Structures
1.
Amino acid sequence: MRESILRAIQLGYRHFDSAALYQSEQPLGEAIAEAIDKGFITSRDQLFITSKLWCSDAHHDRVLPALQNSLHTAPGKYEFPVKKEDVVPMDLKSVWEAMEECKNSGLTKSIGVSNFSCQKLQRLLATAKIPPAVNQVEMNPLWQQKKLREFCERNGIHVTAYSPLGAKGTIWGCSQVMGCQVLNDIAKARQKTIAQVIF
Ligand SMILES: NC(=O)c1ccc[n+]([C@@H]2O[C@H](COP(=O)([O-])OP(=O)(O)OC[C@H]3O[C@@H](n4cnc5c(N)ncnc54)[C@H](OP(=O)(O)O)[C@@H]3O)[C@@H](O)[C@H]2O)c1
């Protein structure tokens, strides 16, 4: 993973999406250090790095320790899928307050959310002192999230697409996006790959 990330930085990738659950934080940190060492980038400031507070840490007093773990790249203990008995209601307000403290103390540059619907965002915005900088959601040409994108635009929330190619080749994805005839026709007409026209 470290080698792939290093090569990606060399090729010009600037946003790396990670999470404690993905166990990608340590190789990412090492690759960034090596990229600076090799002169592919001059400073960490040139990159956008996302990590994620995992559901099991979404409790007011576990937010800061979880972030500190991420920053020290200590391997976290996370189980996926989550056991049914571990699914409990989340106190969004108090968890967000703890995330705001992370931002106010300078431990993170920005705070955001993932897989939030308009309704969840509305609930969050009703009490948040710092609005989420970003909402990372699944989005691709066949699932454009129009309503959510409009809502986010109105509220100054940046939308990040995950699985923009339909996650083909992963355990849960499908080939409908990469196998879409319309996209294939557009790609052919433009002499680009399907992935290029999607982006
Ligand atoms: N926030 C969340 O809840 C959440 C959930 C899931 C994922 N994510 C994020 O989404 C990102 C990854 O998305 P993803 O891997 O699920 O989906 P994706 O980017 O839509 O699809 C990845 C698959 O597309 C194929 N592919 C990649 N580049 C290609 C290219 N240039 N041309 C042709 N095929 C290409 C590869 O398939 P082959 O291996 O078969 O070549 C690869 O496995 C990560 O950053 C992850 O953290 C976030």
Note: Residues 25-38 form the longest helix (14 residues).
2.
Amino acid sequence: MAAAGDEQLLLHLKLAFFALEPSARVLALARKAGGGSVTPRVQNFILENCIGNNVGGGQNYTYVETILKKVIAEAELSSEIVNDELYEELGQCMLSKSNNSSLNVANKIYKDISFLSPTYDDDSSNTVSLVARLSCSTNMLEGDTGCCLWPSSLFLSEFILSFPELFSRKSCFELGSGVGLVGVCLNYVGASKVILTDGDASTLINMKANMEMNNLYIEDSRLVIESKNKVECKYLSWEEASDKDLWDCERDVVLGADIIYNPSCVPHLVRVLSMLLRRDDGQHRSVDAATDEETSDVNGATGGRVAYIATVIRNVDTFNCFAKAAADSKLSIVNITSTAAPSSFLPYMLSYDRSSVQLLKIKLSLSDTDDGKSSLLMLPF
Ligand SMILES: C[S@@+](CC[C@H](N)C(=O)[O-])C[C@H]1O[C@@H](n2cnc3c(N)ncnc32)[C@H](O)[C@@H]1O
């Protein structure tokens, strides 16, 4: 019988495989589980628990093929006995792929993102609390940015799961939602309503398909209130959005992950954020949000609509442009990355660099004379 530590390493290996982690990362976990090499026991585990359960089916053949090749090469190199079934599986995989040429051009893959319950002592958790299945694009660029999963949305998801009280029984509205992972987490923590938006049509189609795959998408927004499945997916371009478009969108909390990256979009993004955070739009607020008005939040602040934006600062100029535009629009920004650090729910995801992500809390400044505090956040060039 495997010891608890072994079990955990094998679980991480399995979850990394289903999240389609880069093959080098999966191999690193396989090596670790084998105590330094990919032993026959680990090979059997991969055959039975990963390859044998490959949920993405045909769409993920290329990935499975790569993993099998690397596992075999690694085992051969370290003079481990190689399980014959690995060769057989590899042959099968290559045959199936060549028999179905359409798979060679498919650019969609299916990732299972599993969130492990964090523990607060030395024992590491083996409990999966939530799994989101997402169709993603293999092409990060060339118009497919919204169909990829970016680290900020992993961070924002961990934040939501770490501080469920900030989102449960609240109407939550996300900008630039991409594949929709944040929506799955918001639904999980009991948000009363979840509106995901994006300004890219193909991203929106993929997002809706993902919500359907997770049994969360509902076409008719009137049913959202009665249904447990309460994720609505909407087209919203920051350039085109008007007050009228947002009029009937309930929101207590606004969210965004990796949306500050294009300097030409920044003024439009800031304008939309200001519209979303304003309260003078005659909108009916949810009863819970109204009564929560004076409840202090994770950062000790009280009241009002709030936005949580997770971002990787790739270009300081672009970030400063955002901070300046936000200050000009009387938005106050506080960096809460360290004061509200989320727990780690994705310990197996070695490719995810949590330290690269910053979390911003944004509110409207209290009065017209009160300048936003965003300039405090300006970074040196
Ligand atoms: C880098 S992706 C992040 C996606 C997702 N939030 C994540 O972190 O995985 C940026 C997202 O913002 C959307 N976006 C970019 N510019 C936009 C605009 N001007 N209006 C609306 N959506 C926009 C893109 O379509 C894309 O889905």
Note: The chain has two domains: 4-106, 128-377.
